[in-house]
Amino acid sequence: MRVFLVRHAHASWALPGTRDFDRPLDTRGRDEVRQLAAAMVVNGYEPDLVYCSTARRCEETLTLLLPQLGLSPVIERSDTLYAGSHERYLDLIRASHADSVRSIMIVGHNPMIEDTAQALLQDNSAAFAEALAGGFPTAGLLIVDCPRVEAGWRAGDAQFVALISPADT
Known about the structure:
This protein is an alpha/beta fold. The chain has helices at residues 27-43, 56-69, 80-83, 86-98, 112-120, 125-132, and strands at residues 2-7, 49-53, 74-78, 103-108, 141-145, 159-164. InterPro entries: His_Pase_superF_clade-1, His_PPase_superfam.
């Protein structure tokens, strides 16, 4: 199964009286989403199922991304992707294996996205270090392949495919 981990695009700073949860994307973030979409189209990256945090910046990232991809995947929104640990992200990956989904995308937040990437690549620390030496960029996309649950999948069994950063496109 292919897993796409997406960190939301760049967001504005919270204005006084605004919750962190409600921070919108800024101009840079909207540009990052366009760059990410173009890279996904060129590479043929198409998720079947999307889990998205309900935080505004994640919702906006997904809302801008999907039309540019020309896709209509199943979308599940989750409040726990905002404040939960990376274990919640891993739980969603495990659950998706059970549903025999070919590919999933999680649109979420740091540090959980980066912690999830580290857990998925824990048996290949060189790949993790090379891919994320500078941290997980906003609107960054990490692609890994995971063996099926039936094959005894565990987080560290993932194989690094690529990291796409808007800065690189």
